[in-house]
Amino acid sequence: MSEFQNVSVVREANIYFDGQVTSRAVIFADGSSKTLGIMLPGEYEFNTSEKELMEIIAGDLDVLLPNSQWQQIKGGESFEVPKDSTFKLKINKVTDYCCSYIK
Description:
By secondary structure, this protein is mostly beta strands. It has one domain: Jelly Rolls (Sandwich). It has strands spanning 7-9, 14-16, 21-28, 33-39, 42-47, 51-64, 71-74, 78-81, 86-102. The two termini are 20 Å apart.
């Protein structure tokens, strides 16, 4: 899906790692949410409170999920992150992403 209909967008950006990772929240009528963002090259560690689906729209990264090995992910691919976990990313080139929070 390249476009979302009938949503609210939170005006203020989420800014992480001194501006290397940014996103904006999109809220749907049913209360579900996603974030749309950009990650610049670098290495990052994130924590989750909910299960997440990370859809990589464009870019190139490596991900280390819990109890797994590093995996390469490119634009057009996705991966899921378990609830209440930590995962690491190595962003190899500017990466455009959509993160869905799964309850």
